[in-house]
Amino acid sequence: MAIRVLLVDDQPLLRTGFRMILEAEQDIAVVGEAGDGLQALDQVRALQPDVVLMDIRMPRMDGVEATRQITGPGRDGPAKVLVLTTFDLDEYVVEALRAGASGFLLKDAPANELVQAIRVVAGGEAMLAPSITRRLLDKYSAHLPSGEEPVPDTLHTLTDREVEVLKLVARGLSNAEIAADLFVSETTVKTHVGHVLTKLGLRDRVQAAVYAYESGLVRPGAQ
């Protein structure tokens, strides 16, 4: 079945461009469009998309609040949110990730990256390109822990190997890359990631990455 995508952006020309790119793919179907967060909520309820391509700056309701309501506690629908960002207006992106977004993509990304991001998010993975993630978190490092704060109690529930895996997730590595780094199978990595999410009460890898930075386990700029 095709991946059902809802386009949410207050600029009609951008929505048209995204639609043209995505509808050229046999495994992706654009099922609707919305010009703001309130319309997005209505469309999500009516259309049940798999992925919502979400702008942040919009009238009436911004992308952060819309993301929170689409993916927040008590929501059991299939929709995953992929946030669109520009680096001169992305002070809300970290908030969108906290709200439950499955990743973010630059608005000027090449067409093939947009298509790949939709597929990655639809498959349950996080869109966390390491270079973009580090640039974003480095930019907002003043608002994140310095690494000198006490480690949260929840972090002590993880095994040493699970902590290693969490650090690599925070760097944006895929399961395959983590497996190669730790010399274990990809299945083992998936198991460790699942344990980390369960023990920390997190929704997905994106929230795990944000947790790693906010807890001081990983510091902005660290390799």
Average residue-wise pLDDT: 82
Q: Given the helix and strand composition, which structural class is it?
A: alpha/beta
Taking pLDDT < 50 over at least 5 consecutive residues as the criterion, the unreliable ranges are: none
Largest sheet: 5 strands, parallel
**Relative helix content:** 40-55%
Span of the ends, CA to CA: 39 Å
- SS summary, helix count: 10
For the CA atoms, what is the radius of gyration?
17 Å
- What is the beta-strand fraction? 5-15%
Task: Spell the H/E element sequence.
Answer: EHEHEHEHEHHHHHH
How many strand elements?
Answer: 5
Shape, per Cα inertia axes: globular
Strand order of the largest sheet: 2-1-3-4-5
Highlighted features:
Response regulator transcription factor; single chain; phosphoprotein; 223 residues; 12% strand
